[in-house]
Amino acid sequence: MNNFLQAAQESVTYVFCDVNGLHETNSKFGHEAGDRMLIALASELAKSFGQDMSFRFGGDEFLAIALDERLDKVQAKRYFLT
């Protein structure tokens, strides 16, 4: 995180994501379906924030980071998640 703080000139925005319904999907459709959900989210985060700024840090938890972007632009990127 310190590297991001040092790289930013004005702001660092963190977007935390948690996949809702993963346990239920795994139970009902199998772990392959749950894996497809995780892969789809990771792919969308990488497209929106960049692969080097998107991270999986838990079973169904992800983090995306935006450096020096206006908040409204970051908020527009996250709308695919809701």
What are the SSEs and their pairings?
Elements: H1 2-7, E1 12-18, H2 22-29, H3 31-49, E2 54-56, E3 61-67, H4 71-78
Antiparallel strand pairs: 1-3, 2-3
Question: Would you kindly provide a written description of the structure presented here, covering whatever features stand out?
Answer:
It is a single chain. The protein has 82 residues and is an alpha+beta fold. 50% of the residues lie in helices and 21% in strands. The chain has 4 helices and 3 strands, in the order αβααββα. It has a 3-stranded antiparallel sheet. β2 and β3 form a beta hairpin. The longest helix has 19 residues, at 31-49. The protein is elongated, with a radius of gyration of 14 Å.
Task: List the defining traits of the structure above.
82 residues, three-stranded antiparallel sheet
The number of strands is: 3
Most strands sheet: 3 strands, antiparallel
Overall shape: elongated
Low-confidence stretches: none
Tell me the number of helical segments per DSSP (H or I, 4 or more residues long). Answer: 4
Distance between the termini: 26 Å
Quick synopsis:
This protein has 4 helices and 3 strands.
